[in-house]
Amino acid sequence: MPDLAQRLADVDARIGEAARAVGRDPGELTRIVVTKFHPATLVRELHVLGVRDVGENRQQELSGKSADTADLADLTWHFIGQAQTNKARAIRRAARVVHSVDRARLADALDAAAEPGDPMLDALVQINLTEDPGRGGVAPEGIEALAERIAASDTLRLRGVMAVAPLDEQPAAAFERLAGYAERVRAVVPDATWISAGMTADFAEAIASGATHLRIGSAITGERPPRA
Ligand SMILES: *Cc1c(COP(=O)(O)O)cnc(C)c1O
């Protein structure tokens, strides 16, 4: 626990420095702690430390941990992983934000999974910054069509864009492209201002390029335990 508190404080200090270095207010940034591979008890420890935004990249872990922590009513779960359409219902039940909407069929499935009385689901267009279609995310030429599809749905609220930096490119260059793609989404929906970018290795670069939502795992949670 003391280690966890220390790592969280260290990361938050580094986020603050990175923001101030480029003239941004750290208070505008949402730091999401990615808890994948860690147990729900870690989520509870993080909550005690004031963390309210947590993220998972696999539906089963999302569903399990959100159920295990259902008493923590002020937690916001973010789903950040590649999603199969047949998991849309489970994702919708567990998450308030889905960062990884990368195709019309998934948008439609998440929309269709709404139940009466559900709040709007915050949705981000995940954009593939690589040339490899297997990496997840819509190719840049598909951005507008997907944004329009989400914006036209009854129960999804288009919030902005999400991306993961490629492995074989300087993150700063990739995140600059992402900033341009974010502008194209704002041309569709002007208040879709979120940019979800930046992980343990590259959050300072992401902040410099305008990221609003950082997805940070191992720098805060420590080494991931082996996959169960
Ligand atoms: C695991 C993961 C993160 C966090 O990665 P770290 O390098 O541990 O900070 C962020 N985004 C996505 C999509 C992830 O799967």
* Low-pLDDT segments: none
Strand order of the largest sheet: 7-6-5-4-3-2-1-8
CATH homologous superfamily classification: Alanine racemase
Supply the CATH architecture: Alpha-Beta Barrel
Helix content: 40-55%
Largest sheet: 8 strands, parallel
Overall CATH class: Alpha Beta
Query: Strand portion, in percent?
Result: 15-25%
Summed over residues and divided by their number, the pLDDT gives a mean of 96
The number of E-state strands comes to 8
Rg over C-alpha atoms, rounded to the nearest angstrom = 17 Å
Approximate shape: globular
- The string of secondary-structure elements, in order, is HEHEHEHEHEHEHEHEH
Q: How many domains make up the 3D coordinates?
A: 1
Helix count equals 9
Structural class: alpha/beta
- What CATH calls the topology is TIM Barrel
Please supply descriptive tags for the structure shown above.
alpha/beta; TIM Barrel; eight-stranded parallel beta sheet; 9 helices; 8 strands; globular; binds pyridoxal-5'-phosphate
How would you describe the overall organization of this protein?
- The chain has 9 helices and 8 strands.
- By secondary structure, the chain is of the alpha/beta class.
- The chain has a single domain, classed as Alpha-Beta Barrel (TIM Barrel), CATH 3.20.20.10.
- Strand 6, helix 7 and strand 7 form a beta-alpha-beta unit.
- The longest helix is centred in the N-terminal third of the chain and has 20 residues, at 2-21.
- It is globular, with a radius of gyration of 17 Å.
- The structure holds pyridoxal-5'-phosphate.
- Pyridoxal-5'-phosphate binds at residues 34, 36, 57, 80-81, 164, 199-201, 215-219.
